[in-house]
Each structure stands twice: as C-alpha cells, then as structure tokens.
Specification:
The complex is a heterodimer of chains A (617) and B (162). Chain A has 617 residues and is mainly α. Chain A has 25 helices and 6 strands. The chains are: A mainly alpha (617), B mainly beta (162).
C-alpha cells in the first residue's frame, strides 16, 4: 500500500469520524447522552425475549414480512391468526396492516440481520451485539468519569458475558427475524426516550439532574417494561418527549430557534405515520401553544416550519395513498379485515385505538375530537372509580381479569411506576410558585420557555387521559400502556418540583445508593419471599403493586411535607426517590425474567438459564 | 497505549472473532442442540413402587388483592420400580360437583426412578364456589401403547380458603 493511499484512507476515516461525531452530537447531545443510550440498551437486553408478547404484534410482523417482499398489502401471514389477526384492515379487497412507520424503520434492520444470518449464527450475532454495546457503555462511562478500571472491567465483563452466552446458546428460528427487527427499533426508540428527556432536563437545570431523570425513565418506569415489545406506545413516548424538547429549545432566543420549532412538527409528522390519532393528540396543543408563545411568527420561520411538517408527513400521505387511495385516510380508518365491508369500527382492531376520524373537514375533526374529550370528562365525573382503577389501585377487577386468564395483572400508573407518587406534590408546588397575584404570575410564566413547555406537557397529559379514560381499565395493559407517554412526562413533572431537585442536588449519592440497594438486595428479597410463598401470576404482580403503592405514597408524602416545611430532611427525599425508582426497576426485571418470561426465547441465553432457575410463578 | 485504551479494542476483537468462529459453516461451535434418538412418546411401560397421592387440596384465594381463586394441589413424589420406553403419565383432578376436571401431563424417560407430580395451578373467578369444601378424585394414569391404565387414585377433599 503506498503512502499516498494510506493518507487518503486516513483522510476518509477522519471525515467519517467527523460525520459520526456530528450525528452523535445531534442525537445524543454529548457523551453523557451516549452513555445513557448504551446503558439503557444493556439493561433492556437483560430481559429481552425474542418473541410475541401481545397478539397485536402478529399483525405488525405480518406487515413487515410483506413490506420486505415489496408490497404494502398482506398476502403471506405467518404470524397469529393469519390475515384476520387483530390489526389488519381491508381496502380494495386486500388486507393491510397498520403502524407502517414502525414497519419501515424495521426494514433495514431486517435486511441487515438476514444478510448477517446467511454466514453467521443469528442467535450469536444478537448477544455479540449486546456485548459490544456493553463494551461501548463501559468505555463511555469510564472515560466520562476518568476511571480506567470501569473501561477495563466492563470490557472484561462483556467478553465473559459473550462466552457464557455462547456456552448455552440455542439457535434462533428464521421465523423470528422480523420480530427481532421490530424489537430492535423499539429498543432504540426506548433508549432514545431517556436520552431526549436527559437533554431536556439538562438544558433546564444541569447534566446531573438530567441524567437522573433520563435514567429514572428507562430504568424505573414501564418505559422499560415495553422496551422490546413492538407496540406504538414506545414510539409515542419518544416522539412526545421529542416535541417537548424541541418546543423548549425553540422558545429560547437562539439562532436555532426556528430549526427546533421545525423539529417539533416533524416529530408529529412521523407520529402520524405510526398512529395518526395520537399524532393529532400531539399536534393540537402544539399548534395552540407554539403559535401563542413563539419568539416570532414571521413568514420565513413559519415557512420553514410548514415545510418541515409537510416533508415529515410525506411518508404518511404516501402510505395512505397506496393503501386507501386517500392521503389522509390511515389504515386504522378502514374496515378491520375480519369484518364485512361497511361495518366500520373506528375504535380500531385489537382494541387499540381512539375513534378519531383524521379524515374529513377541519370542522368534522374538531367536533369529533371535542365530543370524545367531552366523553372523557363525563366518564371522569360520573364514574370516578375508573380514574381510581387507572391511576391509583387496581386489584382484582373481574371484567378486566377475565380477559387475562383471570389473573389480576393490570396495574395502575402508580402501581407500575411508584415514582409517579411524587406527583402528589405538584399542586402544592404550583400553588407555592404562584403565591399572591395568581393570574399575572401565571401569564408571565406561560411566556417563558419552561412555562410553554409546562403547558404543553400538562395539555398532552390531560388529552391522553381524557381520550383513553372511557376505555380504561381494560385487559392486556399490564402498565396502562394506553397512557404510556405519561410516564416520561411524569418524570419531567417530578424534576420540575423544587423539593425534588433540592434533594437530588445535595443528596444524589444517597439516591443512587438507595436505588442500587433496592435493585440488588431488594430484588433478591422479593425473589426469596415469593419463592417461599409460591404465588400465582396475579398474586406476584399484585404484590409488586402493593410495594409500589407503599413506596410511592412515601415519596408523595415527603414531597408534600418538604414543600410545606424546610425542616423536613432532604436526605429522606433522596432515599424515597432511589427507593421508588428501584421498586420500578425490580418489577420490570422480574416481570421480564420470571412472570412474563414465556414471551419468547431470551436474547441473552444465559438470562434464560437464570430465568428457569428463578421460575417462581 | 495503556491498558484502559486497549481493552475495549481487545474485547471487541474477541467478541467479533468469537462470532465468526461460531458461524455454522465452520462447525467449530455447534449451537444446534443435537437431538439424541429417543423412543416414540407414549410407548413402553412403568411399574410404580410407591405413589402416595395427597388427601387434601385447596381452592385458595390469591393474596395482595389479586382476587382470583387458585387450585393448589400439593406436590407428590412417585417412585418407579421400572420405566421402559417413553410412557406418558396423566395426573388428573376431578371435582364432580363443579363439573371440573384438570390434568397435567408428564413424559417419563426409561430409567427414571422418581418424579415429582402436581396438577398445575388453575384460576377461578371468586363467584365459583358455594360450598366450603368439595370432594374430588386424584387419578394417576399411565398411557402407553395406545391403552390407558390407572396407576393410583385417591379421594381428595378440596377446601375453599380465603
């Protein structure tokens, strides 16, 4: 090889790494964001089962198989109940799937994996990739903290993990490749959700609180539970926090303000490709708050924003055009495939949707949207028990459990994420910051960047709740997945409470140690206790529910007390925060490894061996 | 270059190399579990040395507010004098008053000396039970060579417990 050639190669690799750095900075922000991303992936990998957890996945996987074949309609349906599986629709006599956005994101992953599988053992590729991510995570963290032993130890651990997994590896069936591809994009989206929240909170306060917020989201909330399950909810969570982040950045008077504004709308456009009705949910409050609080609404900015939105909507329009012939009629608006034509079910097959017609005139949409919200208000007022059973305590609800083999496995928001208990302090925090001249302060607050962000978060939380509450509680939720995006929003709301930030500012090591203790020791105590009492599935899940309510209440009480009095110790709050996050993590880990372990073969075969050893229920 | 900057590269190289070596084409690492040839399921015979089936079982309501009643049949250990072929054991609970029947199936390999059996947990809605206990029957049967033979049976009292 001549010297000249080597130089040009080096030049090429330099340019490559410069582009890599640029993309890396755009996506992760900094090395902390990257560490959070890789760490999240490593964590999700521990309980990742390659298989179908929820029947809705069958239709998406069938769609992917057919899209990979080069057409949007479904001819070949290897998964579930064939073309009649919930989540397929009829247009022009053909069957179509839904969530085409997710399907198209998974397509390159499927191709790459199929290519690798022609020469390599696919099951080995899966845990080799996980081990490489672990090497990346350890290296990033070690360099961030300037601790060589983390780099060396993590690298060693990755090799040991790889060899251990290799020792107990089993083959991966070819029929699971499409499931694997869908799971990979879901894992990436979930890990990114933490990163975006980190970046938002880091911009608002500092990197440490940001990291804790991001980590709490991906470790201690159901965001982790659904990390490898290809449902739209993980994507809705990611795109919603992206809108929140972009909205916040766009309110600050910088050079990039217009670009961030465009990003907010682009995220909504991509959401439409995945789930049009939820895109509308993100869109309505965005337009209202954005236009009212934008630094400037000049023609150039609006042009850029409109262009970005239109471009991001193109895949949505194009897919609809090919499916239904109408660019604004998404698959969910079509007749479910197993029903006779004309028998229009707007609620969406698989019990998965909100009946918002995205088709029609603006007035029609507004009227339907309004009446659905009104339904939510009516149900909330006339049947407040539903709110209680959705947010606070589930227990055995015969109507719900009958859809889950009579097991009480559908938790409330508090039960599935005890951190949510801290929101008990929100009303006080608001009242506290508004002391005196309420309206003027409120008006002034809304005009600040963080005020606009607060408004958007609150509006989205209310909209999601009102639209889904008439359907809740319902089976096959486990963690109120219809309200999934509310979990990262809750973490945002939690760090907005001054008492919480105050406790973490000083006592963050206490919070981290409590978290570690809860996860490493607490999980063993739970396993030991449940091992002795030999519970049924519903019992085990409800045991976690009670743990969550107890710890979440503790956190809530502390936030209220600390907001009222400065004599309440901050350290107690740090402990409560670590404890609640840890209790959430333990539930996710044990539900993946034990309670719902049968959702497929483990991506890390060694964890499968551990799972068999732990088999409690 | 110190250890810390070199170890990620070394680890990465080992993992990539390991993946290449494990490629099926090379045949170095065999991750396909070799299936040893076994006799067909449902053939052969067993003679039981000792099978003491439990005399009580429970319909136990789940704790922690989980509501559901679970069928809980205590485990029992069956000792075999001999096992040949690959017979199938059916362990079954009948509760006539509830028109209820449930069985768990066990495959036994030749040479097995003892096996722990139970009727798998089942769920019942709380409104199922009108009595405080039910009389049922536990039956252990052998299915082999197309015939079924009762190995052991016992009348069992199934208590309903909150």
């Amino acid at each position: 090889m001549s010297t000249r050639n080597r130089f040009s190669l080096r030049g090429l690799s330099a340019r490559g790494s410069a582009i890599g750095r640029l993309v890396g900075r755009a996506v992760f922000g900094d090395r902390r964001g990257l560490a959070l991303f890789l760490g999240g992936l490593c964590f999700f990998g521990l309980y990742w089962r390659i298989g179908v957890f929820i029947t809705d996945t069958n239709a998406i996987a069938n769609t992917l198989v057919n899209v990979a074949d080069g057409h949007l309609y479904i001819t070949e349906a290897p998964y579930g109940g064939g073309r009649e599986a919930p989540g397929t629709y009829r247009a022009d006599g053909r069957a179509y799937g839904r969530n085409y956005g997710i399907v198209f994101f998974a397509l390159p992953v499927l191709w790459a994996f199929e290519a690798l599988a022609t020469v390599l053992a696919p099951s080995v590729v899966v845990f080799a990739l996980w081990s490489l991510v672990l090497v990346g995570f350890a290296t990033t963290v070690g360099r961030l903290l300037d601790r060589d032993w983390i780099v060396v130890g993590g690298s060693g651990l990755a090799v040991v993990a790889f060899l251990t997994n290799l020792g107990v590896a089993t083959p991966l069936a070819e029929s699971l490749y499409p499931i694997f591809a869908l799971q990979v994009v879901t894992l990436l989206a979930t890990a990114l959700t933490g990163v975006v929240l980190y970046r938002l909170v880091a911009e608002l306060y500092d990197a440490r609180v940001g990291l804790m917020a991001g980590a709490a989201t991906v470790l201690g909330t159901p965001v982790a539970f659904w990390a490898s399950i290809p449902k739209r909810h993980s994507f809705t969570a990611l795109l919603l926090v992206t809108v929140v982040y972009a909205l916040y950045r766009s309110r600050r008077r910088t050079d990039h303000s217009a670009s961030f504004r465009a990003l907010a709308y682009a995220a909504v456009g991509i959401m439409a490709w995945i789930h049009a009705a939820e895109a509308l949910l993100l869109f309505v409050p965005l337009v209202a708050i954005d236009v009212a609080t934008a630094p400037s609404n000049d023609r150039r900015t609006l042009g850029l924003v409109a262009l970005a939105f239109l471009v991001s909507l193109l895949p949505f329009f194009l897919t609809n055009l090919l499916v239904s012939g109408n660019p604004v009629q998404p698959p969910r608006m079509l007749t479910p495939f197993d029903q006779a034509p004309g028998d229009l079910d707007l609620s969406g097959g698989g019990g998965g949707g909100i009946p918002i017609p995205v088709v029609g005139t603006g007035v029609d949409i507004a009227l339907t949207f309004g009446s659905l919200l009104w339904d939510g208000v009516v149900v909330s007022v006339t049947e407040p028990i539903r709110l209680y059973q959705t947010f606070i305590r589930s227990g055995f609800l015969s109507g719900v459990a009958s859809g889950d083999g009579l097991e009480a496995i559908n938790l409330t928001m508090l039960e599935s994420a005890p951190l949510v208990g801290g929101l008990l302090g929100i009303p006080l925090a608001i009242a506290h910051s508004l002391r005196g001249e309420t309206t003027t302060r409120l008006r002034r607050h809304v005009r600040t960047p963080v005020g606009a962000t607060d408004c958007y978060v609150l509006a989205c939380a209310i909209l999601f709740s009102l639209l889904y509450v008439p359907k809740l509680p319902i089976h096959a939720q486990v963690t109120v997945r219809y309200l999934h995006p509310l979990f990262p929003l809750s973490i945002y709301a939690l760090v907005r409470v001054p008492a919480v930030r105050g406790a973490l500012d000083v006592h963050w090591p206490t919070a981290l140690w409590t978290f570690a203790g809860t996860v490493f020791v607490g999980s063993q105590l739970v396993v030991a206790y449940l091992g002795l009492t030999n519970p049924g599935l519903g019992e085990a899940v409800q045991f976690h529910a009670l743990l969550a309510i107890a710890t979440g209440t503790l956190l809530g009480l502390w936030v209220v007390a600390r907001s009222l009095s400065t004599t309440v110790p901050d350290r107690a709050g740090a402990i409560a925060l670590g404890l609640t996050t840890g209790v959430g993590t333990v539930f996710t880990l044990l539900s993946g490894l034990v309670y719902f372990a049968s959702a497929g073969g483990f991506a890390l075969p060694a964890m499968g061996v551990l799972s068999e050893f732990l088999a409690l229920v | 270059m110190n250890l810390a900057s070199r170890s990620p590269l070394v680890a990465g190289a080992i993992i990539v190399l390991g993946t290449l070596v494990a490629a099926p084409g090379l045949g170095v690492v065999d991750i396909e579990r070799s299936q040893q040839s076994t006799p067909d399921v449902g053939t052969g015979n067993v003679t039981v040395a000792n099978a003491s089936l439990p005399s009580t079982a429970r319909f136990q309501q789940g704790s922690y507010g989980s509501g559901t009643y679970y069928l809980e049949v205590p485990e029992t250990e069956v000792e075999f004098e001999s096992v040949t072929g690959r017979p199938v054991l059916n362990y079954k609970l009948n509760v006539p008053a509830l028109s209820y029947s449930r069985q768990s199936v066990y495959f036994v390999e030749s040479g097995t000396e003892r096996r722990t059996l139970t009727v798998e947990r089942d769920t019942f809605p709380p409104e199922t039970f009108s009595q405080t206990e039910y009389t049922g029957e536990l039956v252990l049967t052998l299915r082999a060579n197309g015939t079924e033979r009762v190995l052991a049976n016992r009348t069992v009292t199934v208590e309903v417990r909150e």
